[in-house]
Amino acid sequence: MSDTSTHEHNSTSADAFAPKFEVPRFNMPKFEIPQMEVPAAFREFAEKSVSQAKDGWEKMRAVTEETAGLIEGSYATASKGATEYGRKVLEASRANTNSAFDYASQLLSAKSLSEVLELSSAHVRKQFDVLNAQTKELTALAQKVATETTEPIKQSVSTAFKKVA
Question: What are the residue ranges of helices labelled H in the chain?
Answer without folding.
Answer: 2-17, 40-108, 113-164
